[in-house]
């Protein structure tokens, strides 16, 4: 049993993107884990989009939280995309609450070797083909995915074409 109160005290939040993001981070720390959020920024280039980086081990809990939290109710996954950051890989999820009109980008990082991020197909059906594409082109495994197999490249293709270290001239390709 947690010694945390069931809910954070109601606090009036300033109506600025940064203050709302700060409040969101506090909620996630309270409801999920103190270390759930690694980074939180306002993406000014992308229309003041709140953007957080979540630890992989907390991703499923955070994803579910965004779906059921009354202030967010993110019932739609607009897109997910894989990114090769050089020393690590990440998946970026764009979540939307159609009723609340709230949007957020969530980054989840994974190591290059044995890259793996839990599937969210059971929460958002949109993830199905998007996760397959990221698996096929970047080699990120999505445990829990109902049908994780190549979607663009032939089954016998060697390597992952969107990785920065991919060499198309390799004799194995």
Task: Please tag this protein with its features.
173 residues, five-stranded mixed sheet, elongated
The averaged pLDDT comes out at 91
How much of the sequence is in beta strands?
A: 15-25%
User: What percent of the residues sit in helical stretches (DSSP H or I)?
Assistant: 10-25%
Q: Please tell me what the overall shape is.
A: elongated
Tell me what you see in this structure.
This protein has 173 residues and is of the alpha+beta class. Helices cover 21% and strands 24% of the residues. It has 3 helices and 5 strands. It has helices at 17-31, 59-68, 127-138; strands spanning 37-43, 49-54, 76-84, 88-97, 102-111. Strands 1-2-5-4-3 form a 5-stranded mixed sheet, with helices on one face. β3 and β4 (88-97) form a beta hairpin. The longest helix has 15 residues, at 17-31. It starts with 16 loop residues before the first helix and ends in a 35-residue tail after the last helix. The mean pLDDT is 91.
Give a short summary of the structure:
By secondary structure, this protein is of the alpha+beta class. It has helices at 17-31, 59-68, 127-138; strands spanning 37-43, 49-54, 76-84, 88-97, 102-111. A hairpin with a 5-residue loop joins β1 (37-43) and β2.
Topology:
Elements: H1 17-31, E1 37-43, E2 49-54, H2 59-68, E3 76-84, E4 88-97, E5 102-111, H3 127-138
Parallel strand pairs: 2-5
Antiparallel strand pairs: 1-2, 3-4, 4-5
């Amino acid at each position: 049993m947690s010694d945390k109160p069931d809910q954070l005290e109601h606090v009036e939040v300033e109506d600025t993107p940064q203050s709302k993001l700060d409040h969101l981070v506090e909620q996630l720390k309270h409801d999920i884990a103190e270390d759930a959020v690694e980074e939180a920024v306002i993406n000014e280039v992308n229309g003041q989009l709140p953007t957080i980086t979540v630890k992989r081990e907390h991703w499923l809990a955070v994803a579910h939280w965004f779906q059921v939290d009354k202030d967010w109710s993110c019932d739609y996954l607009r897109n997910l995309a894989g990114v090769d950051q050089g020393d690590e890989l990440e998946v970026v999820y764009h979540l939307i609450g159609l009723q609340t009109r709230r949007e957020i980008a969530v980054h989840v990082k994974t190591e290059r070797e044995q890259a793996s991020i839990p599937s969210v197909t059971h929460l958002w059906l949109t993830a199905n083909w998007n996760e397959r594409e990221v698996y096929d082109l970047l080699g990120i495994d999505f445990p829990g995915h109902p049908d994780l197999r190549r979607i663009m490249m032939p089954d016998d293709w060697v390597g992952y074409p969107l990785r920065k270290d991919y060499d198309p001239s390799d004799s194995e390709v």
